[in-house]
UniProtKB/TrEMBL annotation:
Pfam families tied to this protein: nSTAND1, WD40
InterPro entries xref list: nSTAND1, P-loop_NTPase, WD40/YVTN_repeat-like_dom_sf, WD40_PAC1, WD40_repeat_CS, WD40_repeat_dom_sf, WD40_rpt
Positions of the Novel STAND NTPase domain: 30-424
Transmembrane segments: 469-489
Gene3D superfamilies linked to this entry: P-loop containing nucleotide triphosphate hydrolases (3.40.50.300), YVTN repeat-like/Quinoprotein amine dehydrogenase (2.130.10.10)
CDD domains the UniProt entry points to: WD40
Superkingdom to which the source organism belongs: Bacteria
Species this protein is from: Rhodococcus qingshengii JCM 15477
Keyword hit for DNA repair: no
Keywords, in A-Z order: Membrane, Plasmid, Repeat, Transmembrane, Transmembrane helix, WD repeat
Name assigned to this protein: PD40 domain-containing protein
Mapped WD repeat ranges: 552-593, 598-633, 644-685, 690-724, 736-769, 782-823, 828-860, 866-898, 911-953, 967-990, 1049-1090, 1095-1127, 1151-1182
Length: 1209
């Protein structure tokens, strides 16, 4: 292996000399695609040395006899480790301590007949009974070899455990395998290793021998590390004298990481397949490039692309029979993941009686290496990743899952019927047979299944004839035929409905799958599903939280920089296609190219930057030059002067000083040039290039006052220079450290107080530079990306940060409190490849990103997502006219909002409460006063918000509570109720809010801690929820100085958390820890009683409930992160309105309706605030306005090749 280690070191350092093209273009592909490595591939099996050693040590060190179980997630290389790793070691050096004598290797492929596969290797095992018999079986086998030890591998063991195998056959196979593995002999040795997917471990535990193996002899295969993946990518190429373009392996690994974090864990077969596909697109020198990677479809797309190319080879007749064949190769799971199954080729040829067409399909897919045919004639998918990644096949399975499961079970039982001698007792009858007749009439079946169905129908007819005699039998026979005909007719009608429903579910399921990875496309698919079933509204409303993008194409390679002109109307993009483009983005939903691209650079354009006045543009390139352009007329930009030549190679970025007189240009040699561009026709270096970093400088930025220049380097540091005098720059402080890899991007906040930097180590860090000589790190690193961070940008408010990563996403961060950074909303996703650059428009409402796919995307930030706080936000409160909203957080901040236009709330006054925490707040009906409680303060704090821009303290209302949670105001604003102690109430006269006066004496109420209260619309009834009791307390508060206790409302099985009255005051809703919502008739509070059954629709504590102004809609927020809407038009029978309008699991929600609009406000964990518009048309308009050109005909055909295109907007 020394030569491989040497090649690896050379691949890492790039020191290996370029090969001669004539010898560097080998024809043999060093990658295996979807095929697993076999024992003969052991010399090119890289990246798993550690796992091989661990497995061999486990086999050598076993202290008990019995089977070994190697388990791993699908797609982590289990089969390859078994064969090329463990078997490869056994075949060359054995598995015996102190010996290198080779072992014999045998493999059992379970297929449809696992026991038959075992007896072909060990003919005598069927008759073996005693331990001596099994020892003889092993000795007989080894007698025919030159070895005295055997490694027996049983791979794909999940095939034994799936529903396709009968229990008796399965149990006998496992038992005999176990007994063989326990042979103890002085002359022979055996090790039995079974490989099984980790998700089948629960099924293994149902069999005692397998459970014993898992307990005592398990081998766990972990996913490969980044370093091991790099070996698996680079060393096979090095073995055939091929090279990889710099950055290619890092890109592949970054994409693998993003895929693994998302829905697909099968990363190794995806990697191997894309590498094999890339080999077909290698350059003339035989090397692998980023262009080849993109041509292959990338990690996520290569398998689907290969499958679709094979599909195109088939003619229409072949395509018509293909689904029946493909579905037979899938073991469709009932509540479990679908798996591949092996089927004899002869059986597949006979399906539907179309031997020739079936043969052409098998041949085409085998040629494409999607199917394999072994020596025994068994056909199977090359890997289960084909099932996961081939969209067309996935849709075939989803569209008819129920009928395919029925067909699968029917054909399995038909085969078993034949194997058992076609006994009449095994034939289907009754409803099961009727289901087959109705649902499988148009499904091609195996010949055996046709015989099975024919004999089953005959048997059923005979039974009826025997019961009724000859005449009656004839009538019965006719009746049966009529029933079957009617049943088939009705089934056909139902089939149309089910087909439509299945299509709807398929589209919606795809929308759900894409929601995180491509929210723009997901939202368009939600609209398509809505058009199929107009009643589906909740999914449409849920799109409001998603960022959405309009794509713009024009570049032919990656976009490295997107930069706004200072007025925000024009955008410049720099690309790997050697050009810079200008775009009219005055309408962000319709970005339009301006004129022709700026050309002149002879290599990739790394960056573009505008002068502060927007009259000049600077571009930088891998050709080592910076070019200046006069762009006063964007339609006809003109080059200014000669290119500025760097002495240090590639110029990675350019940035103008705020006065526009200086241009910084970092270089590949670790220096940064400062150019005087006050006269751009004769630009010149102000000083020798700034030196210091020990690696290439990737990024630079000037502070807003122009006094500081920050640069980031491959040496993992960020340097700060004092450039107050750019002709005499000096180092401002010691380099900033902390990154594990290159510092790839830097940005100053517009207020000049913060410096942010992003790194290839997938994190970002923020420093306070109020004192540039002593920067201080603010809070922990920003984590969440799974790829290198190449771009970072501040929003105009200095409190929002964006990071763009090679994981294909951009993330937003709330830096309102930089010491406690919080992720803000959903990541911006949808690019095909890494997201390389991100920029805020000057107004902050729109963002631009550029990606490796060469697409510019203009993002609309969701207005429903409000950036306000850094910790849990309690229930928002509205003034009675809806013009103002107040939010309060346990971070101690109170924020007042202008919500006169609730679709565009405006932050007004803000204050930090002295006790540092807000647990409850109320706003007076006129909006002029806000009341807060929180922490251990034992007081209500009063705030004057009559000028919403300036919130002033009014005073304190002292209480005797340990925790001042409870607080409510009557709708007329004249009375306040608070806790007096933790289980007593106090009413207050707040007619003069500056001097609250107690009304009567404290009133004890049931419960330990009063948590929630609500007044009826007329203020005459008060409902209270408390811990320590499951009941709702009702009080007559018509005379608040003498409140009267009414009969409690009983029914909840755990404590209630929230109570609310309907707008007409006739109904009370309550919800709580028992995960139910209950309604109460309180038209006469003294005679209150329950209404209907409790609502069950959320699977965790329901924290809050709220009625819409018209009383026809109820919203409920839960700890699981759902916000559910209910139609309460008929309060006795409320109807659940679709699913949650919030992402499940995002946060617990505290909710409130606006009193004057159809808007719902919510406060949640981590500072989350939402303001949803519940008018469906508004949500639809936003999707249509901001996702132009996303759902094209081509995209639809790729996702749903069998469905007609559905219009959306």
């Amino acid at each position: 292996m020394a030569v491989w280690r040497e090649w690896w070191a050379e691949a890492q350092t790039g020191s290996r000399q370029a090969a001669d093209p004539s010898s560097a273009a080998p024809t043999a592909c060093p990658y295996l695609g979807l095929a697993s490595y076999t024992v003969t591939d052991r010399d090119r099996f890289f990246g798993r040395e550690r796992s091989i050693e661990e497995a061999v040590s486990a086999l050598q060190g076993a202290t008990t006899s019995g089977m070994f179980v190697l388990y791993a997630a699908s797609g982590t290389g289990k089969s390859s480790l078994l064969h090329a790793g463990i078997a490869g070691r056994a075949a060359t050096h054995g598995l015996t301590w102190g010996s290198t004598k080779p072992w014999s290797i045998e493999t059992v492929d379970p297929g449809p007949d696992p026991f038959g596969a075992l007896t072909r290797i060990f003919p005598g095992i069927r008759e073996a009974e005693s331990s001596d018999d099994y020892r003889t079986v092993l000795d007989d086998y080894l007698a025919d070899t030159e070895n005295d030890a055997l490694l027996l591998i049983v791979d794909q063991f999940e095939q034994v455990l799936t529903a396709g195998a009968h229990d008796a056959t399965r149990d006998e196979f496992i038992d005999r395998l176990d007994r063989l593995s326990r042979v103890v002999s002085s002359t022979s040795t055996i090790r039995v290793v079974i490989g099984v997917r980790a998700d089948f471990v629960p099924e293994c535990l149902q069999h005692a021998p397998l459970a014993d193996a898992l307990q005592h002899r398990q081998i766990v295969l972990a996913p490969m590390s980044s370093e091991e993946l790099a070996e698996a990518i680079k060393l096979p190429a090095a073995a055939v004298n091929a090279e990889l373009e710099p950055g290619l392996s890092e890109r592949i690994i970054s994409d693998l990481d993003a895929t693994r974090v998302g829905h697909n864990q099968s990363v190794l077969p995806l990697m191997s397949h894309v590498l094999e596909s890339m080999w077909m697109h290698r350059d003339q020198a035989g090397n692998l490039t980023l262009r080849a990677y993109e041509a292959a479809g990338g990690i996520e797309g290569s398998v689907n692309r290969a499958a679709e190319n094979a599909w195109k080879v088939l003619d229409d007749d072949d395509r018509a029979v293909a689904p029946a064949l493909l579905l037979r190769l899938v073991q469709i799971g009932d509540g479990a993941r679908d798996t591949r199954r092996a089927v004899p080729r002869a059986e597949l040829l006979r399906v539907g009686g179309a031997d020739a067409r079936n043969g052409r399909v098998i041949e085409a897919l085998t040629t494409a290496r999607l199917l394999t045919v072994d020596d025994a004639g068994l056909v199977t998918f090359a890997h289960e990743v084909v099932i996961d990644s081939w969209i067309r096949l996935h849709n075939m399975i989803s569209a008819n899952r129920a009928s395919n499961m029925l067909r699968q079970t029917f054909e399995r039982d038909a085969a078993e019927w034949d194997r058992r001698g076609r006994q009449s007792a095994d034939l289907w009858a009754g409803d099961r047979l009727h289901d087959v007749i109705a649902q499988l009439d148009d499904h091609p079946l195996t010949p055996m299944a046709y015989s099975f169905r024919r004999d089953a129908i005959k048997k059923q007819e005979r039974r009826k004839l025997q019961k009724r005699g000859a005449v009656s039998a004839i009538a019965a026979f006719v009746a049966v035929l009529m029933v079957v005909s009617v049943f088939a007719f009705r089934a056909s009608a139902r089939s149309d409905v089910l087909a439509s429903s299945a299509q709807f579910r398929e589209v919606l399921s795809t929308a759900d799958r894409l929601q995180q990875s491509n929210p723009s496309l997901s939202a368009q698919l939600v609209l398509a599903a809505r058009n199929m079933q107009p009643a589906e509204t909740s999914r449409v409303l849920a799109t409001q939280d998603a960022p959405m993008a309009t794509p713009a194409v024009g570049h032919e390679n990656a976009i490295y920089t997107a930069a706004y002109r200072p007025d925000g109307k024009v955008l410049a993009t720099a690309s790997g296609d050697h050009t810079t483009r200008l775009w009219d983005v005055s309408n962000p939903q319709a970005p339009t190219p301006i004129g022709s691209p700026l050309e002149g650079h002879t290599s990739f354009v790394t960056a573009a930057a505008w002068s502060p006045d927007g009259a000049m543009l600077a571009t930088a390139s891998g050709d080592g030059t910076v070019r200046l352009w006069d762009v006063r007329n964007p339609l006809s930009p003109e080059a200014i002067g000669s290119p500025l030549q760097s002495a240090g190679g590639t110029v990675y970025v350019v940035s103008f000083s705020p006065d526009g007189r200086t241009l910084a240009a970092p270089n590949d040699d670790g220096t940064t040039g400062l150019w005087d561009v006050s006269n751009p026709e004769a630009a010149s270096l102000l000083t020798p290039p700034l030196a210091g970093p020990a690696g290439p400088v990737r990024t630079s930025a000037f502070s807003p006052d122009g006094k500081l220049l920050a640069v980031g380097s491959d040496d993992k540091t960020v340097w700060l220079w004092n450039v107050s005098d750019p002709s005499n720059p000096v180092i401002a402080t010691a380099p900033l450290t902390g990154f594990a890899r290159a510092a790839h991007s830097v940005a100053f906040s517009p207020n000049g107080q913060l410096l942010a930097a992003g790194s290839d180590d997938r994190t970002a860090r923020v420093w306070n530079i109020g004192n540039p000589a002593q920067p201080t790190l603010e809070g922990p690193p920003l984590t969440g990306h799974t790829g290198a961070l190449w771009s970072i940008a501040f929003g105009p408010d200095s409190q929002t940060l964006a990071t763009a990563s090679w994981d294909g996403t951009a993330r937003l961060w709330n830096l309102r409190d930089p010491s406690r950074p919080r992720s803000l909303g959903q990541p911006l996703a949808g690019s095909n490849g890494g997201m390389i650059t991100v920029a805020f428009a000057p107004d902050g409402a729109t963002m631009a990103t550029g990606s490796q796919d060469g697409v510019l995307r203009m993002w609309n930030r969701p207005t429903s997502v409000i950036d306000a706080h850094t910790d849990r936000v309690m229930t928002p409160r509205f003034s009675s006219d809806g013009s103002h909203m107040a939010t309060g957080s346990v971070d101690g901040t109170l924020q007042v909002w202008d919500t006169s236009d609730p679709d565009h709330p405006i932050a007004r006054g803000r204050v930090v409460v002295p006790n540092g925490q807000i647990d409850n707040l109320q706003i007076s009906p006129d909006g002029r006063t806000v009341l807060t409680t929180g922490g251990n303060d034992r007081a209500v704090l009063l705030w004057d918000a009559s000028d919403p821009d300036t919130i002033r303290p009014l005073g304190r209302l002292e209480l005797e509570t340990r925790y001042a949670y409870l607080m409510a105001i009557t709708p007329d604003g004249r009375t306040l109720v608070t806790g007096s102690s933790d289980n007593s109430l106090q009413f207050w006269d707040i007619t003069d809010i500056s001097a609250p006066a107690p009304l009567g004496q404290p009133l004890p109420v049931p419960g330990d801690l009063l948590t929630n209260a609500a007044f009826s619309p007329d203020g005459r009834t008060l409902a209270i929820a408390a811990s320590g009791t499951n009941d709702i307390t009702l009080l007559d508060s018509s005379d608040p100085s003498r409140p009267k206790m009414l009969q409690p409302l009983t029914g909840h099985t755990k404590q209630a958390e929230s109570v609310v009255f309907s707008p007409d005051g006739k109904t009370l809703a309550s919800a709580g820890d028992d995960q139910t919502i209950r309604f109460w008739d309180v038209a006469k509070p003294s005679e209150a009683q329950g209404i209907g059954d409790p609502l069950i629709g959320q699977s965790s504590t329901i924290r809050s409930v709220a009625f819409a102004t018209d009383g026809r809609t109820l919203a409920s927020g839960s700890d699981e992160g759902t916000v559910q809407l209910w139609d309460t038009t008929n309060i006795a029978a409320p109807i659940k309105l679709g699913g949650s309008i919030a992402s499940i699991g995002a946060t617990r929600w505290y909710i409130a309706f606006s009193p004057t609009s159809n808007h719902l406000a919510a406060g949640g964990e981590g500072g989350a605030v939402r303001l949803w518009n519940l008018t469906q048309r508004a949500a639809e308009t936003r999707v249509c306005k901001n996702t132009n050109n996303v759902l094209t005909d081509a995209t639809w055909d790729q996702l749903f090749p069998e469905l007609p295109y559905r219009t959306t907007c």
